[in-house]
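User: Can you write out an input/output pair for a complex, sequences first and structure second?

Assistant: Here is one pair. Inputs:
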Amino acid sequence: MFHQSPLKSLTLAAVIVALALYATLGGYFPRDIVVEIALLAILALSLDFVAGYGGMVSLCHGAIYGVSAYAFAGMTAVAGYDAATATLAALAIAAAFGLFVGAVTANISGIFFIMATLAFGQMAYVVVFEWRALGGDDGLSGIERYDLSTLGIDLNDSLQFALFCLVVLVAVYGVAALVLRGTFGRTLTGIRFNEDRMRALGLSAWSHKALAFAFSSLLAGVAGILAAQHTLFVSPELLVWTVSGEVLIVVILGGLGTLVGPIVGAALLVLLKHEVGAYTNHWHLIIGLFLIAAVMAGGRGVYGQLEHYLLQKAERRANA
Amino acid sequence: MVASIDFWLTQFLNGLQLSMLLFLLSVGLTIIFGLMHFVNLAHGALYMVGAYAGVTAAASLGSFWLALAIAPIAVMAVGMFLYATVIRHMRRSGPMNQVLVTLGLIFVIVDLVRIIWGDIALGMEQPAILSGPVELLGVVYPAYRLFVIGVGAAVMLALSLVLSRTQIGAMVRAGVENDAMAACMGINVERLFFAVFCVGCALAGLGGAIAAPVFSATPSMATDILIPTLIVVVIGGLGSLRGAIAGSLIVGFIQTFGAVVLPGFASVLIYVLLAGVLIAKPSGLLPARG
């Protein structure tokens, strides 16, 4: 059951403040890293919503992210719509794709679910790869960032864009937390714990799972729109299944089913990638060993382990 | 798309060759899946190691045939090491954790291969006796590719005989059907799994070594082959030899003919098939459990 504990609020605040400071005090490169962390964090958070609370381990969140980025890019750069329409359309397309995948796969479980989502993700990848009007395998450029000059904000400034992404991350976290605290989120968690019992209570597990997948895709779509505006370029690489794999790794490293853990995981993975990448181009070796160690140590992830440790300590104190 | 019979026969042989490579990989994976419910994504990485081991053995010993014998053994040794260090401890911990740990193993193995052999594609000489083209039913076709088909067919036949006619085969089938009951009947399922795992690794290594002269050994082999292999396993049905045979042929032929008839969308066809099978018949076309 989701509970916005003081530890969660504290961790979220600490990570966001640290990233904001890093972006403010650092130059162009640190700001780029902060944007990368924020995007990955939103995407990982959306995956944690379905995987951690709904028990649906998806391997197509990279594809949903890419579909949304492409929808935004195609609407603005190719079809010439304004940014607001394109944003709504991209979110709607991401949610519709998610609803479709969720509705079709919600009754499949375990490894079969993972494979089915992989199949749909790869279908989207191949379609985008072959779609000449969207640039095919060359990708698509000519994307512009939001024009927020009426608010006195210039998103073409690297610092302001980095801070904007952090604000969006906090907003997405807030929305996800609200949904998880509400009836829908509690029902979803209930289905994850005991699907048969929820069904016996007269609830449709299928429709809740499908809707949860659609909502998660909507959140992933937010990350996709920002990703298109970050690099001002989209390519089919966004949709490859290894992106989905990386997002899953972030969720696991941070802590599955904690909502705040994926943000910690995203920060860790991106920083590790850049720090290790500065010395060697074999950073996957380090990530791989890290991942194996994290899962074999109990699979709670960094934040999950911290929470577990503090809970145990509190319990011992209560018993003493 | 009107082409001669020769053209289609060549495509047929190409499809058969791809199917046989897929079979060598998927059969090990499917039995490991079926017997122990273990999801080993690192199977594709073992195939890559087999290719590199084959390339190195062929270059240092100067013999293709020795390389073909050494590569499976080397890969089996790698597999045993993985089993002892990681896989044995992950046996009981759910599909998601297994997916993640073996995904981590892919990262580690691919980077180790890149450190040892570098990023450049390494070629492997075909043996002189198989390097020329041969004429088959009026079609000129590379002899080596026929050899690949032959090896796959031989392994297929040998495995079917072992699984259906020997006591070991009966024990494996019993383990797939109901491992708890098999253990009650006095079968050491854990040791059986280890043996099957070793054979699966050796076949992946063999697949890599015979693929090396055709495709060259590259670090991207590990992930490129993984998805088609998983699709074969899921389409065919976990733990089923007949399923692996049928799945390999289906995927191999759809990929080959799809690339000719519907260029660009061949891979979509495969995923549509996968999604269709998962939705209509989640246990696969030819499941091992009746």
